[in-house]
Specification:
The protein is of the alpha+beta class. Helix content is 31%, strand content 21%. β22 and β23 form a beta hairpin.
Length: 758
């Protein structure tokens, strides 16, 4: 535990790092970062994942056949929830039932219970390609090369297969060589009708037959071309085209394309025409373009750690980030482009959960210098804005902007546990990502035309929905804190929770900062006054509480009451002794309550918090638990303790991605922090680490930072200014904060020899 005395010293004179750097950082992933197995995975959630943000694939073996499970991010059953057409579907109805009638049964019938029985709205799978590989014999090696995003399978008889989802095209490719006999692919449709699979116990899953679809037919266009057309609900449909040829009797080359109709992301053309227009003529030319894209992606940033487990996991997470989030496509939902391939709908319908999941999924994008991929999230939030405004008027009865916490691809409410599916402050946490996208990019157009307009509407919503308490302060009529007290009546709080309050206070704080940056001083002053009308967070001897009168007294997976500390930084060790003591008490309390009801993402989130208080050894410990106990061999986060080693009472395995990207974010927090406005290099390294380095991690203010740590000491720091402006750096060579007005394109390097930079 970092001593309070040490943290006080950091506040007074800056952070005293014991860091160093070693070998030069290699930009590209190394061979030991790759996924590698001695045989093909035999479970879908252990498959090798491929993707380009819109199309995804899982490579595994099912019933003796090599299977490419195909997914597409915009394939959704978007049927409306009939219950939500009721006039009772309103915040006022909930307030009346909770506050006046003390009876939530009608709320649960309206919002909660139906999700136990209906199967939609939900994300849906696309289909699969299978190969009968019995004649190929025993598999020798299976690998996913991160540098090229290519899956390679080797057989003992010398046969070889390469598979990739093209980074530049609308589909995927496969190439088999050294085959002992001819091989042909089969196009497999999802089990929308006959479905004898045993239903897994996973939260919110149903057999695909529950959707009521008639299974589409696979049409043979010619001897080497198949076309599958599937009608979904309403106007949504999709096609998969598959083409292949055998240049010789010992090779097989093929390509596939999946297209949709009726979604925001649909093509005008069908799959065959899209394949003809957009895909290269052969495997090699397509592969060359694909490799180039991935090389450019990896050149954005890199790290080198003495802990090879953490280093490998970071590269795996950043691989999945690019495979799951791509400009022009939908953002990362619970499983992104890797929907369950088991004849069932995905866990929790594969939805957009914004009481934690969507937000954590984008934590890693900013510091890793992948702003194009992270912008996909705010692009989508902007796209659903009109639907969210309509929801705000219909459900809350006020103008402004809130977002359904559990939402479809188009931002429509799905329902579920009503205190969270209809949380009154979801848009506040989502506002943080508009703030992060702006602060890391310093994109003035984005600030003016998207970030501030979004946050301004959210701030107006909070003003409109609030009421005055007995002491004259603003409060919410009813408040919640994910996912405290499940969906019981006591999950609704009459006093504003620290979770809702953090979202509200964050919104007004960043609204003021943005207004000032735009020269809107009158509006900035208004947001300051609005902020002053809300209470401060509730605290007691154990730290931050859930709500006034409600302390955190039980193990819980969600640190919603600590949001003001992390990720928001409204409470931070840089702000002095009171903050330091409060933060340390709060962290100690959640640790003392135990991990019985944690999931994998809880460990990853705690690791981020430990980095914020510079406890690097604890960061490492929690991330090792996350990786070893809560991740599948392919690196997927499975929520439960797969080792059954006592890290959690949850031992189930629903796959979701947010824990993965929170893990990567925690590693980055060890290397670089800038949330206070001061760049801090190597703030939370393990005391056991000797040589560390990174290149082109991104700090707030649009600064690219590279640094090395050698023999237990910081050796060099290089700061590049992308947009110009004031740069503030905690300078370990002077033990002071160095401030420098930089111009766009300027680079400064700090070393022992040149402590003030050159």
């Amino acid at each position: 535990m970092v001593r309070v005395k040490h943290l006080l010293l950091i506040v007074v004179v800056g952070i005293l790092f014991s860091c160093r750097s070693g070998e030069e950082v290699s930009d590209l992933p190394r061979p030991y970062h790759n996924l590698r197995f001695e045989k093909l995975p035999e479970v879908w959630d252990e498959a090798l994942p491929l993707g380009n943000g819109l199309t995804g694939a899982l490579i595994w073996q099912k019933e003796g056949k090599l299977r490419i499970a195909i997914d597409r991010a915009d394939l959704w059953d978007l049927r409306p929830v009939e219950e939500f057409k009721s006039p009772d579907h309103s915040y006022q109805f909930i307030c009346d039932q909770v506050l006046k009638k003390k009876d939530i049964a009608p709320i649960q019938r309206l919002i909660d219970d139906r999700t136990k029985y209906d199967a939609a709205p939900t994300k849906i799978p696309a289909g699969a390609i299978e190969f009968n590989i019995a004649s190929l014999g025993k598999v020798k090696d299976v690998s996913l090369d991160l540098t090229s995003a290519v899956c390679t399978i080797l057989w003992e008889n010398g046969a070889k297969a390469r598979i990739f989802v093209s980074a530049n095209e609308k589909g995927g490719r496969f190439f088999f060589e050294n085959l002992p006999d001819t091989l042909s692919p089969e196009l497999i449709t999802p089990l929308y009708e006959e479905n004898d699979t045993e239903l897994d116990y996973q939260p919110g899953v149903n057999k695909l037959t529950a959707l009521g679809y008639k299974r589409g037919k696979v049409e043979r266009i010619n001897p080497g071309t198949l076309l599958y057309q599937q009608q979904g609900w309403g106007d949504v449909s999709y096609e998969i085209a598959l083409k292949w040829k055998s240049p010789s009797g010992h090779s097989l080359e093929g390509e596939y394309c999946v297209t949709s109709k009726g979604t925001w992301y649909s093509e005008k053309e069908g799959a065959l025409e899209c394949m003809r227009q957009t895909m290269s003529s052969n495997f090699d030319s397509s592969l060359a373009m694909h490799k180039h894209w991935w090389r450019e992606y990896w050149m954005k940033s890199s790290i080198s750690l003495p802990d090879t487990l953490l280093e490998k996991q970071w590269y795996l997470e950043m691989y999945k980030f690019a495979a799951a989030s791509r400009k022009g496509g939908p953002p990362i939902c619970l499983q992104a482009v890797w929907t369950a391939d088991n004849g069932q709908t995905p866990p929790w319908r594969g939805d957009f959960h914004s009481d934690l999941n969507t937000q954590l999924s984008y934590w890693a994008g900013y510091t890793s210098n992948h702003l194009e991929e992270s912008s996909v999230f705010t692009d989508w939030l902007w796209r659903i804005k009109e639907n969210a405004e309509a929801f705000t008027r219909q459900f809350y009865g006020v103008e402004g902007l809130n977002v359904p916490c559990i939402a479809t691809l188009t931002g429509e409410p799905i329902g579920g546990w009503s205190p969270y599916s209809h949380s009154p402050s979801t848009a506040g946490w989502l506002s943080h990502h508009f703030y992060l996208q702006w602060k890391y990019s310093m994109d003035a157009d984005f600030l003016k035309n998207r970030a501030y307009p979004w946050i301004k509407e959210v701030a107006q919503y909070f003003e409109n929905i609030s009421v005055r308490g007995e002491n004259g302060e603003r409060q919410l009529p009813l408040s919640t804190s994910p996912e405290i007290n499940d969906n019981r009546i006591d999950a609704w709080f009459q006093k504003t929770t620290n979770y809702d309050l953090a979202n509200i206070r964050l919104t007004y704080t960043v609204a003021r900062e943005m207004a000032e940056a735009l020269g809107l001083n009158e509006e900035a002053g208004y947001w300051v006054r609005q902020l002053s009308e809300w209470p401060k967070p509730a605290v007691n001897e154990s730290g931050l509480m859930i709500a006034p009168g409600k302390a955190q007294t039980e193990s819980h997976r969600h640190f919603s009451h600590l949001l003001s500390f992390h990720p928001f930084g409204l409470i931070d060790v840089s702000k002095g002794n009171g903050n330091i003591d409060l933060i340390l008490r709060s962290i100690k309390n959640v640790e003392m309550l135990g991990t019985d009801w944690w999931t994998g993402y809880t460990y990853a989130w705690l690791a981020n918090m430990k980095a914020r208080v510079f406890e690097g050894d604890d960061v490492v410990r929690n991330l090792h638990i996350f990786i070893k106990a809560f991740c599948s061999p392919n690196s997927f986060h499975l929520n439960g303790d797969q080792l059954k080693a006592g890290y959690s009472q949850f031992t189930y395995r629903p796959f979701t991605l947010e824990g993965n990207f929170a893990c990567a974010a925690a590693i980055q927090e060890m290397l670089l922090q800038s949330h206070t406005g001061v760049i801090k290099v190597f703030p939370a390294l393990s005391t056991k680490w000797e040589d560390v380095s990174f290149r082109h991690l991104r700090a707030m203010g649009a600064f690219l930072v590279s640094a090395s740590y050698e023999g237990g000491k910081i050796a060099s720091i290089t700061v590049e200014s992308e947009k110009g402006g004031w740069m503030k750096l905690y300078n370990p060579f002077t033990d002071k904060i160095t401030e420098r007005k930089m111009v766009a394109g300027e680079t400064i390097t700090f070393t022992n020899k040149f402590p003030m930079g050159k």
